[in-house]
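dumping this here before i forget
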Amino acid sequence: MSEPNPDPIVEARHRELAVEHLLFGTIRHLAERDPALLDALEGSLDHLWDKADDASRDDAAVRGVAQRFIRSLRRER
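structure:
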């Protein structure tokens, strides 16, 4: 295993990619057993927001990322 990158932006990207992979795989696994899971997740998107407290805040963009995940999972079924 390699050492964490000293650049915090690179390290954050590595974490994001790892979490995205693990989460996507977990949701895929669970949705195979309970197809209603994707409907429930999609129904929860109104409660998702961007936690930034500056001009970069974009709630719709965060919801859009989640929606793309769900659409991708639906296509795999």
